[in-house]
Specification:
The strands form three sheets. Strands 3-2-1-4-6-5-14 form a seven-stranded mixed sheet, sandwiched between helices. The N and C termini lie far apart (49 Å). The chain folds into two domains: 164 residues, 2-Layer Sandwich (Nucleotidyltransferase, domain 5); 175 residues, ATPase, nucleotide binding domain (Nucleotidyltransferase, domain 5), CATH 3.30.420. Helix content is 40%, strand content 20%. The protein has 14 helices and 14 strands. A hairpin with a 3-residue loop joins β1 and β2. The chain is an alpha/beta fold. The chain binds adenosine-5'-triphosphate and butanoic acid (BUA). The site of adenosine-5'-triphosphate has 14 residues, from α10. Butanoic acid binds next to loops.
C-alpha cells in the first residue's frame, strides 16, 4: 500500500532570522533562512510584536517559491519559553498561545514559533504543533536540588536537537531511543549536556542563563560569591550583568567574538590567550560530560557531540581525549532542527505517537493539589 503523503510547513524563529522548511513526509522540498534586517527587528518593542511581519515574510516566501499552502497537512513551529513540560509533540492550544504571547518564562524568539504555526494553520483548517521546546523538563527530583534552598535547578536546553540526534543515533545503532543511555552534548552559541536515561533527559545544565560549561557567548557556571560581589559593586545595572553572562559571556567576553572559526584562526596565528580560552571551553565541556556519566552510573551507550562547534576537529579531539574512556564518541556536527520539527509532526500525523496537550495554568493547579 502506498504511504500517505503529508506536506508539513516547519518554522524555527531565531533572533535575527526565521528558518522555514517544507517537507513531504521526511523529504525536504524547501529550506530557507529568511534573514531579517536588524533595523526592522529592533523597530519592534518586543519579540511578540514581530509576529505579523514574520508571518507576512513567510507567506510571501512560500508564494515566491511556488508552494501552494492549501496543500499543507500541518504547520509545526519551534516551541518557546513555556511552563516546564515533558518532551514530545504538542498541539498548539489556547493555554499555550496565552503563555507564548505573555512570554511566561521570558522573551525568546522561539516563542513566535507556536504562534506563527497556529495562525497559518488555523486559516487553512489544519493542525498546528510544537515539538520538544527548550523548556522540556524530565529532570529527576534529585537533579532539581541546587544546594541553595531558595533556588531550584531548571531544565532549559536544546531539547529539539538533542532528542532528534539521540533518536537518529539510536536508529543507527539498531536500537530504540528509550532503550539507551546517552550523553548528548549540543555545542552552539550555548552549550548543553544532557544525560538521556532510556529516553528521558534526567539531568542537563540550564544553557540559557544557568549553569554548565561556558560557550561562545554565555558564561555558564561562575563563582557565586564573586558574582554577588560584582552585582553589588555599584558599577553595573542588572541588565548589564545579565548581558555579561548571556550574549557577552564565554568566548565573546575573553576574545571579542562568538565565532569559533575566527578563534581557530587566532590560534593558528600564534595567539596564546585564544589557545588557552578555547582549550578551557573544551575542558569544561569534558567535565560536564564526566558529571553526566556519573548521573548515568557509568552505564553509557554513547556520547554524542553535535551543534556548530562539533565541526571544529581540534576542539572535538580535545574533548574526546578527555572522555573517550567513558563510551564511544559519536560526532554529528550542526543541527537539523527543521527536519526534527517535521519528524515530530509526522510521528503524530502517522499515529506513531499521540499529540500531547499543553496544560497551561492547569499545571499550576495540579501542583497545588
Ligand atoms: N567549521 C566550523 N569549525 C568550528 N566551529 C564552527 C564551524 N562552523 C560553525 N562553527 C561554530 O559553531 C558556533 C555556532 O553553532 P550553531 O550554529 O549550532 O549555534 P546557534 O544555532 O547560533 O546557537 P544554538 O545552537 O545555541 O541555538 C559558532 O561559534 C561557529 O563559529
Ligand atoms: C539553551 C536553550 C536554547 C538557546 O540556546 O537559546
Amino acid at each position: 500500500m502506498l504511504e500517505q503523503e503529508h506536506r508539513i510547513l516547519v518554522i524555527n524563529p531565531g533572533s535575527t532570522s526565521t528558518k522555514i522548511g517544507v517537507f513531504d513526509n521526511e523529504i525536504s522540498v524547501l529550506e530557507k533562512t529568511l534573514r531579517h534586517d536588524a533595523d526592522v527587528i529592533n523597530s519592534y518593542e518586543s519579540i511578540i510584536d514581530q509576529y505579523e511581519f514574520r508571518k507576512q515574510t513567510i507567506l510571501e516566501t512560500l508564494d515566491h517559491e511556488g508552494i501552494n499552502i492549501s496543500k499543507l497537512s500541518a504547520v509545526c513551529g519551534r516551541g518557546g519559553l513555556l511552563r516546564p513540560i515533558e518532551g514530545g509533540t504538542y498541539s498548539v492550544n489556547d493555554a499555550m498561545l496565552e503563555d507564548l504571547r505573555a512570554g511566561f518564562a521570558g522573551q525568546h524568539a522561539s516563542n513566535l514559533g507556536g504562534i506563527l504555526a497556529y495562525e497559518i494553520a488555523s486559516g487553512l483548517n489544519i493542525p498546528s504543533f510544537i515539538v520538544d521546546p527548550v523548556v522540556v523538563d524530565e529532570l529527576d527530583p534529585i537533579a532539581r536540588i541546587s544546594g541553595f534552598s531558595m533556588i531550584e535547578r531548571k531544565s532549559i536546553f536544546h531539547a529539539l536537537n538533542q532528542k532528534a540526534v539521540a533518536r537518529r543515533v539510536a536508529k543507527e545503532l539498531g536500537k530504540k531511543y528509550g532503550e539507551l543511555n546517552l550523553i548528548v552534548t549540543h555545542m552552539g552559541g550555548g552549550i548543553t549536556v544532557g544525560a538521556h536515561k532510556k529516553g528521558r533527559v534526567v539531568d542537563v545544565n540550564n544553557g540559557l542563563h544557568g549553569d554548565g560549561p561556558f560557550s561562545p557567548e554565555r558564561a555558564g557556571t561562575v563563582p557565586a560569591g564573586d558574582l554577588v560581589g560584582l552585582c553589588y559593586s555599584g558599577s553595573f545595572y542588572r541588565e548589564e550583568v545579565m548581558k555579561k553572562l548571556v550574549g557577552q559571556g564565554g568566548l565573546v567576553g575573553y576574545l571579542g567574538t562568538n565565532d569559533a572559526v575566527k578563534v581557530e584562526k587566532m590560534i593558528e596565528s600564534g595567539d596564546e590567550k585564544a589557545k588557552l580560552v578555547y582549550s578551557a571551553m573544551a575542558y569544561q565541556v569534558a567535565k560536564e560530560i564526566g558529571s553526566a556519566s556519573a548521573v548515568l552510573g557509568g552505564k553509557v551507550d554513547a556520547i554524542i557531540l553535535t551543534g556548530g562547534l562539533a565541526y571544529g576537529k581540534d576542539f572535538v579531539n580535545e574533548i574526546s581525549e578527555r572522555i573517550n574512556w567513558i563510551a564511544d564518541v559519536i560526532v554529528q556536527p550542526g543541527e537539523n532542527e527543521l527536519q526534527a520539527l517535521a519528524e515530530g509532526a509526522l510521528r503524530v500525523l502517522r499515529g506513531e505517537e499521540t499529540e500531547k496537550e499543553y496544560p497551561g495554568k492547569k499545571a499550576d493547579k495540579a501542583a497545588l493539589k
